[in-house]
Amino acid sequence: MPKFNLRKVKKLYVLFIFLMFQFGYGQEKTSLSGFVSSGKKRVSEARVFLIGTKYATQTDSLGKYSIDTIAEGSYKLQIVAEGFQTLKKNITVLSNENNILDFELASTENQLNEVVVSGTLKAVKRLESAVPVEVYSPVFFKKNPTASIYEALQNVNGVRPQLNCGVCNTGDIHINGLEGPYTLVLIDGMPIVSSLSTVYGLSGIPNSLVERIEIVKGPASSLYGSEAVGGLINIITKNPTNAPLFSADVFSTSWLETNVDLGVKLNVGKKATALIGLNYFRYNQKIDNDGDNFTDVTLSDRISLFQKWTFDRKENRLFTIAARGVYEDRFGGDVRWEKKHRGGNEIYGESIYTKRAELIGSYQLPFQEKLMLSFSGNVHFQDSRYGTTSYIANQKIGFLQLTWDKKIGSHDLLTGIATRYNYYDDNTPATSQLENNNPEKTWLPGIFVQDEITFTEKHKLLLGMRYDYNSFHGSILTPRIAYKWKLNDNNIIRLNAGTGFRVVNLFTEDHAALTGAREIIIANNLKPEQSINANLNYIKKINFDNGTFIGIETSFFHTRFSNKIVSDYDTNPNQIIYDNINGYAISQGISTNVDFNFPNGLKIITGASLLDNKNVENGQKETPFLTEKFTATWSVSYKFQAIDLNVDYTGNMYSPMRLPLLSALDPRTPESPWYSLQNIQFTYSGLKNFEFYAGIKNLLNFLPKQNNPFLIARANDPFDKNVTYDTNGQVLATPQNPYGLTFDTTYVYGPNQGIRSFFGLRYTLR
Question: I want to staple 32 with a disulfide (CB 3.0 to 4.6 A). Which of 99, 178, 208, 406 is the partner?
Answer without folding.
Answer: 99
